[in-house]
Amino acid sequence: MTAMATKCFLNGDLKMPASITVKVNGKEVTEVIKENTLLVDFLRDSLRLTGTHIGCDTAQCGACTVHLDGSPIKSCNILAVQADGAKITTIEGLSTKEGNMHPMQKAFRDHHGLQCGFCTPGMIMSALGILSKSRKPTEAEIREGLEGNLCRCTGYHNIVKAINSGAEAIAKAQE
Amino acid sequence: MYNFSYHRPNNIDSAIAILRKSEDGKIIAGGQTLIATMKLRLAAPSDLVDLGGIEDLKAIRKGTKTLMVGSMATHTQVTTSSLIQKEIPSLSKLASEIGDQMVRNLGTIGGSVANNDPAADYPAAVLGLGATIVTDTREIHADDFFTGMYETCLKDSEIIKHLVFPIPNRSAYVKFKNPASRYAIVGVMVAEFDNGVRVAVTGAGSGAFRIESLETALTKDFSNTSIAGIKIPTDNLIEDMHASAAYRAHLIQVITQRAVQEAK
């Protein structure tokens, strides 16, 4: 066997796949995957949860943001095997069983916080990350919290307004 | 991304054993640089050894006049640790300004220090605070650790366990950010200890470096006026699309003065 063939054998499809068990949006799933599968591809292709988007695929735009054990992370910049045993929440996990929108989703709609909507799932998952640190964030805190999310159509002004209003609605519901 | 064998050992000894056995194994900490590098096929390790399963490496503890920060502590952990906020507030502030909240939730101090990106923030803290890097086999002082752009004196199968930061009398980290990437165009850590002041700069050279002239002046008199007249030489400073060497030299002077003012 040539050196190249050996490398292909070791690194290619003939390798043993890995099995992972994760709790996604409250439901436990076990899947056999290739070890080089990114978490975002696992969510989209294996679980068909296509609400999580792939924008830049280089960990800059934040469209792939999901929550890993409660904290926002970029799912295009982590291997699915690294998430083995974790709890994952995607945009699909936010609405109620009856299909009612999460208050943050509703706030984005009410304040025109989206235009084409491609970045929105990531924006909303990041927004909830901001709220986990500060229940009533200031505008500066919201803008800082969105540093990892890019929107190429609306600009950020209405997104900031939406997050502010969503934060108020969530705080009110918790009172 | 090329495929690889993935390992998630739960202790350092097994991690080292796997690394030694592998053809071209690499350690993955938070993966915030490595995964992106592998996706671009700029790295193609045969094996990935994930340190995420080793609980000991995540701890943050107080020592004698020192703080011990586990290599797998995330930037978020360093930002929110009440111990670090109290003892070395400049370090938690530095961590709070790395990348964005998603990167901070996965990226680790050990990964950043081992990667030694010339514009990363942590190398300035490690050098400026005179930290000691503790690996599975030895203790390395910051002054000997960083050896060049993306280079450190770490051996292939050596693992950083934790970093020991001496607690300064006062310190501050101030950075002038690239507005798009949030990497430092110039970042300065100033730290005052009983035996003198240390000043470390990141973003401006091939790696973090200290500036002796500023240290000597600040050791004599810890004030902005004491360093206002010191000219920073442009030799060895980076010149790129973001800033010229002369502008970086100017920024080092200004940012150091701001850090002196902010030091607490």
Q: What is the element string of chain B, with H for helices and E for strands?
A: EHEHEEEHHHHHHEEHEEEEEEEHHH
> CATH superfamily of the domain at 170-262 in chain B, please?
CO dehydrogenase flavoprotein, C-terminal domain
Number of helices of chain B: 12
Proportion in helices of chain B: 25-40%
Summarize this structure as a short list of keywords or feature phrases.
heterodimer; A: 175 residues; alpha+beta; Ubiquitin-like (UB roll); DNA polymerase, domain 1; 2 domains; five-stranded mixed sheet; disordered N terminus; B: 264 residues; Uridine Diphospho-n-acetylenolpyruvylglucosamine Reductase, domain 2; Enolase-like, domain 1; five-stranded antiparallel sheet; four-stranded antiparallel sheet; 12 helices; 14 strands; 25% strand
Describe the fold and architecture:
Chain A has 175 residues and is of the alpha+beta class. Chain A contains six helices and five strands. Chain A has helices at 3-11, 39-46, 103-110, 120-133, 139-145, 157-174, and strands spanning 18-24, 27-33, 65-68, 71-74, 87-89. Chain A has a five-stranded mixed beta sheet, sandwiched between helices. The longest helix of chain A is centred in the C-terminal third of the chain and has 18 residues, at 157-174. Chain A is globular and about 50 Å long. Chain A starts with a helix and ends with a helix. Mean pLDDT of chain A is 91; it is low at 1-14. In chain B, the strands form four sheets. Chain B has a five-stranded antiparallel beta sheet with strand order 4-5-10-6-7. In chain B, strands 11-12-13-14 form a four-stranded antiparallel beta sheet, sandwiched between helices. Chain B has a three-stranded parallel beta sheet with strand order 1-3-2, covered by helices on one side. In chain B, 34% of the residues lie in helices and 25% in strands. Chain B has helices spanning 12-21, 34-39, 75-80, 82-87, 89-96, 101-106, 109-115, 122-128, 142-145, 212-220, 224-227, 245-262, and strands at 5-7, 25-28, 47-50, 60-62, 66-70, 132-135, 139-141, 146-148, 151-152, 160-166, 170-177, 184-193, 196-202, 209-210. Chain B contains twelve helices and 14 strands. Chain B is globular and about 55 Å long. Among the domains of chain B are: 1-50, Uridine Diphospho-n-acetylenolpyruvylglucosamine Reductase, domain 2; 170-262, 2-Layer Sandwich (Enolase-like, domain 1), CATH 3.30.390. In chain B, strand 2 (25-28), helix 2 and strand 3 form a beta-alpha-beta unit. By secondary structure, chain B is of the alpha+beta class. The A-B interface holds A 10-13, 15, 18, 34-36, 38, 57-59, 62, 65, 68, 71-74, 77-79, 81-82, 84, 126, 129-130, 145, 147-149 and B 1-6, 8, 23, 28, 31-32, 35-36, 39, 44, 46, 48, 50, 52, 76, 99-103, 105-106, 182.
